[in-house]
Write a structure and sequence with these properties.
Largest sheet: 7 strands, mixed
CATH topology of the largest domain: Rossmann fold
Structural class: alpha/beta
Number of domains: 3
CATH architecture of the largest domain: 3-Layer(aba) Sandwich
Radius of gyration: 30 Å
Bound molecules: guanosine-5'-diphosphate, magnesium ion
Strand content: 15-25%
Order of helices and strands: EEHEEEEHEHHHHHEHEEHEHEHEHHHH
Strand order of the largest sheet: 3-4-5-6-2-1-7
CATH superfamily of the largest domain: P-loop containing nucleotide triphosphate hydrolases
CATH class of the largest domain: Alpha Beta
Helix content: 40-55%
């Protein structure tokens, strides 16, 4: 891959701000910067990692475009590992556009999305999982997701993968000696590799199990609010979010579309989805609305089934409880501010074992704190095992690790079945390749392109 050209892009978001930063990387960074930068005091020593004050000017020096601070970071001590110049200009897209145009006229090419990170990776400044961690941090929607990205950037995952890699290489080495020196395969004796294999499997499985708990913080959980019409589903959505997103009326069947809004509960993005009330539909619109509910239930991490305590229970309530029996549910008995038509023990036998019932009022807010706590508890139910701070927060990593784990599992079965060492070694080598995809030690250009092109420009 030819990487001789010099690239430039805005590193800060498009919009008005105090300052905006333009990043330039490549062998010509400094000479290009010299052409368009006029130091305030007439000269500039361009010492590495120093900040200089001056103007960005046209090539003939006659037009001033902005007053800036500029810095030069000599390779390899820069983000990309190449010569890098950063211009701190004023944060207006018009100014940034103008400076980028000047840079292009002076020999820079506009960077593709993720190209700075890609160069950092190709110059061994970061491994692939760390480059992806940067993206995860930038897109993090909660403090916890951000912290997990940071841990990965600092190498928590890379270290764990490296440990697994060394174990694999040691095991392969053991196997390979037996392959090399045994001529007569009938006498081949597979060395004792099961302890290593078991250790690897154990580490991999706990790493894999971290994914579902990490996902709770990175992507959040989908919580569907369901129940028959008029039990207060839309009111609950509005009370929990503090916004008036869903229309609330006393007319049953008001909500038809799925209405969703996200709240942050102790770092977990909780996507609440209000739905049409479930009953025998009265018209085609309501019918469509109700079929949307059944479809959305498939994607639900869990379900809040709402009941109205001020009205007698009906078959509709029972059907809804019955249909959600196999799911993680929270039963919320609403309208406790009104006189009761039934007592909570009336529904206990309708529920699966161990499900408790929360009493709330979407109107007064009673019980909503307990409801939030319950949502958090259910979301974080599958707590992480101890993986030394390493977590899998990225689907690509999870899939690669799963494949690697499968290969090792196969190697284990073959070992136990007394299959020839060569076959076992083959599986272990496959497992190693999958691990190397995570850190990018061994990965196709095509996959690399795909990963980096999903990053934003200027990263
Ligand atoms: N008193 C009382 N009324 C409620 C409560 N929750 C909802 N309501 C009323 O019940 C009716 C139906 O509420 P809505 O949220 O539209 O129910 P949905 O059809 O399940 O979405 C409205 O008139 C609400 O004001 C509550 O906790 N207490
Ligand atoms: Mg509604």
């Amino acid at each position: 891959m030819l990487r001789q050209d010099t690239i430039a892009a805005a590193a800060t978001a498009f919009g008005m701000s105090g300052i905006g930063i333009i990043r330039i990387s490549g062998p010509e960074s400094l000479s290009i910067a010299r052409r368009i930068f006029k130091p305030a005091n007439g000269k500039c020593a361009w010492k590495s990692h120093h900040l200089y004050h001056g103007d960005i000017v046209s090539a003939d020096g006659k037009t001033v475009f902005d007053e800036v601070l500029i810095s030069f970071m000599r390779k390899p001590r820069s983000f990309t590992g190449e010569d890098v110049v950063e211009i701190n200009c004023h944060g207006n897209p018009l100014i940034i556009e103008t400076i980028l145009t000047q840079l292009q006229e002076s020999g820079c090419r506009l960077a593709r999305p993720g190209e700075f990170s890609e160069r950092a990776f190709l110059n061994n400044r970061l491994d692939l999982s760390q480059a992806e961690a940067l993206a995860a941090m930038i897109y993090a929607k909660s403090a916890k997701a951000y912290a997990m990205g940071l841990a990965q950037l600092k190498g928590a995952l890379s270290k764990e993968i490296d440990k697994l890699r060394l174990l694999l290489i040691d095991t392969l080495a053991l196997l390979e000696t037996s392959i090399d020196f045994t001529e007569d395969t009938s006498e081949e004796k597979i060395p004792e590799i099961l302890p290593q294999i078991n250790q690897m499997l154990e580490r991999m499985q706990s790493l894999l199990s971290s994914y579902s708990s990490a996902r709770v913080y990175t992507e959040g959980v989908n919580v569907i609010i369901t129940g028959k019409p008029n039990v207060g589903k839309s009111s609950l959505l509005n009370s929990l979010t503090g916004r008036k997103k869903a229309i609330v009326t006393e007319i049953p069947g008001t909500t038809r579309d799925l209405i969703s809004d996200t709240i942050n509960l102790v770092g977990i993005p909780v996507h609440l989805i209000d739905t049409a009330g479930i009953r025998e539909p009265q018209n085609i619109i309501e019918k469509e609305g109700i079929s949307l509910v059944w479809e959305s239930l498939v994607d639900a991490d869990f379900v809040i089934v709402m009941l109205d305590v001020s009205e007698p229970l009906t078959d509709e309530d029972k059907i809804i409880l019955e249909k959600n029996k196999s799911k993680e549910i929270i039963v919320a008995v609403n309208k406790i501010d009104l006189p009761r038509a039934w007592e909570t023990n009336a529904i206990e036998r309708l529920l699966p074992q161990g499900r408790d019932v929360l009493e709330i009022s979407a109107k007064t807010g009673a019980g909503l704190e307990e409801l939030k706590k319950k949502i958090v508890n259910l979301s974080t139910g599958s707590e992480t095992e101890n993986t030394g701070g390493a977590m899998i927060i990225n689907l690509r990593h999870k899939l690669a690790l799963e494949k690697s784990c499968k290969n090792i599992q196969k190697a284990k079965e073959d070992t136990l079945a007394g299959v020839s060492a060569e076959f076992v070694a083959f599986d272990l080598r496959e497992a190693l390749d999958r691990l190397d995809e995570i850190t990018g030690r061994k990965i196709s250009d095509e996959i690399l392109d795909k990963i980096f092109s999903s990053f934003c420009i200027g990263k």
